Amino acid sequence: MKNVSRDKKTKIIAFILTVVFITAGVLQIQYLACTGREFESLFVEKYKDSNNFYFNHVLPARNKVMFLIENKKEIVQPPKDLEYYYYVSDGETVFTNVPEESKKLFDQYNQNLYDLENNNLILGENPEEGYLYHYADDKYTLFLAFPDEYLYSEQVDWENSRLTMMPYIAMMAACLVLALGLIVYLILVTGRKLGDDELHMGKIDKMYTEIQAFAFVSILGIWVSIGMDLFEHNSDLTYRLGLSQVYSLILYGIITVASVTLMGLLFLSMVRKLKAKTFIKHSITYIIYFRIKDFFKSFFDGRRFERFPLTKALFYRQLAFIIVSGALVIFTFLFLLVPPLMIIPPIIEIAVIYWYVKYNNKTYEEINKGFDESLQEQMKSERMKVELITNVSHDLKTPLTSIISYIDLLSKEEELSETARDYVNILSEKAYRLKNIVSDLFDLAKSTSGDIHLDLEKLDLRKLIEQTLGDMEDEINESGLIIKTRLSEESIYIMADGKKLYRVFQNLIDNALKYSLKGTRVYIELEEINGKAVATIKNIAGYEMDFTAEEILQRFTRGDKSRSTEGSGLGLSIAESFTKVCGGDFRLDIDGDLFKVTIKFNVEK
Amino acid sequence: MDHVTILVVDDDKEIANAIEKLLTLEGYRVIKAYNGLEALDALVANNIQLILLDVMMPKLDGLSTTLKIREKKNIPIIILSAKSEDSDKILGLTMGADDYVTKPFNPQELVARVKSQLRRYMYLGDMRNSISSSQLIVGGLSLDRETKEFKVDGVPVKLTPTEFKIMELLMSNPGIVFSAEKIYEKVWQEEAYAVENTVMVHIRRIREKIEINPKEPKYLKVVWGIGYKIEKC
């Protein structure tokens, strides 16, 4: 049972049914209103007891009779053939449509049914015998009597109206009861899921409570007011629906579905929040309140100063200083009343300032000391890093020297078999590759550790790029790629280490030659933009670059996806690092198959 | 070459043995030493024409040994070192070494450098006495303006006329940096326009002819972003 009731489908169906039932119920009421049914007939059994009767029959009759007496001079012959009996008098003149002797009728009613003291008609003993209305003030006395015969046809209509409406009302009630049941069910299961007892929150629950409540009330207000408007103005006494009424009913049905759905979602969300006990906590008001409270609290529970114990001392000292100073200002005003005492606050203030400055200085000294210590520590570790690099490099290079030398000697042995010679060739190839890696690694480690010797001089970047291209002409021709250069006409001078920068461009061009798609072009551009020398190298990769610019540059420190079998794979990292030690800016962009490196230097004038 | 004896000094015995084998195959006689002091002793006890010297060694390191040797002898010294920084190379060369080879080295390159140094020491030395006015000599390079002969360590090298002119220009002013435009104007006798690549390609070709390792040239150097020069030796 639990499984079924918590199933998502069940919940959705229940929600939709709820919306449908509510909409159906509301539309039935609207339909009845449209066809001009009297809802009063549902609650008042006798027509003569209803407001409808009073407003539609009694009041018009009364007004008519009052009009007669108030304009008695113009009245020659009071009307006789009315459906009701009347008697009206202002003490002098009497108008009535009953014979004089029948006036007893009123007297009789008067006695039996009329409470003179309160001017109220009491309908108690004999209600079937018609309806009597009496009115009296200083000037006028008025009686109206509606006989049974007259009321009979109205009573039949009244009962008919009730009977027609009854089925609709019953259905509406059923709808609403069902909807209510479903709502209760939804309240119980919302937030629960199959298989666990956890409370699950949805996306709508991320709305703050106030916003939810405001939205709920707004939608409710709009929906109800549209409904009331329709209810009051859409009635038609023909008991049949006109076209415009049908349209407005359809429109209202859509509005109802929309509003009920939205309200339902908001309502259930609020229910979930109540269940999760986050109804209050997840409101804007609470969050603002909590933040402010937390901010002030953090000063006193030590959280704010957890990592900076010295700042804590400074803060409390400041606080004390401000409070004492403030208090002294107030005291100064008090002491104005007793002039000789006025000397006291300044003296205390001076003492406080002395204390404040002295201890703050002490704290600052401690902070500086800590800073110095960490700086020393850092320099020491830098030095150790450089030494480590040098030592490791030496320890790697020495055995490698033996390996390479003996492989060379081995290759000179004459009685080597064909297979052995192949093996020696592979060994030789790999040993040289290892040599390159060690050398690149060493260069990179030195430049990233900052311990690198730089020969900075003013050089022409355009010239350097052209020299590099000339130097690599053989490789470029072998690669079969076309290099397109667009270099500035003028020389662009920068401060840099020529050898390092040559390595940068050599590595980048080498990279482009190695990894470009066959037959594509490599673009090398250089221009001056806003006092910066901007060099770009662009090429189309011949393989899918499933790594980010970050990953390819940091493969030295991180694992990576594109280890190659040739070269050290450190070319780009070295290019980046060398550019940076020369004071330049290195940027790598990977956009689909486009591989683009941008190097920027400040132009030297 | 029967009488050429080379002293190999390295505290790593395997490396010393490998070098010994390498040089023996080339027909040299090899004596080994494992630190600076042993090297100095060996130098006294034998008639040695060339020394291969490691830098990082116990007792007496390579640089101090170089200084000591230079007090008495001017035989070629090639330093072998794992230190590859430019500053290390410059230090080694100013201490009196004739060449600087970084570990791990290419054995063939090492042999070539040994041969080059020996040639210069044994044959070129005599030539120095008979320098004619038409000759330009920088380190192991010699250029004869009249005979249009170009030699590296006494071995003739064929240069094209343009290459020869470039070398003539640079070798007349060793250590001076020439821009591509200047080289072009002087050598081609034309106005220079977008000539960087042309000059660079020539420089590269020359390097391939005269340098043992064109990737790490000893004589003909590119000053990146500025120009070209012949190293003053």
Explain this structure to me?
The complex is a heterodimer of chains A (about 600) and B (about 230). Chain A is of the alpha+beta class. Helices cover about 60% and strands about 10% of the residues of chain A. Chain A has 4 domains: about 1-35 and about 155-275, no CATH class; about 70-155, no CATH class; about 305-450, no CATH class; about 455-600, Heat Shock Protein 90. Chain A is built from 17 helices and 13 strands. In chain A, the strands form 4 sheets. A 5-stranded mixed beta sheet of chain A has the order 8-10-11-13-12. Chain A is elongated. Chain A starts with a helix and ends with a strand. Chain B has 2 domains: about 5-125, Rossmann fold, CATH 3.40.50; about 130-230, Winged helix-like DNA-binding domain superfamily/Winged helix DNA-binding domain (Arc Repressor Mutant, subunit A, Orthogonal Bundle), CATH 1.10.10. Chain B has a 5-stranded parallel beta sheet, with helices on both faces. Chain B has a 4-stranded antiparallel beta sheet with strand order 6-7-8-9, covered by helices on one side. The mean pLDDT of chain B is about 85. The interface of A and B includes residues 393, 405 and 460 of A.
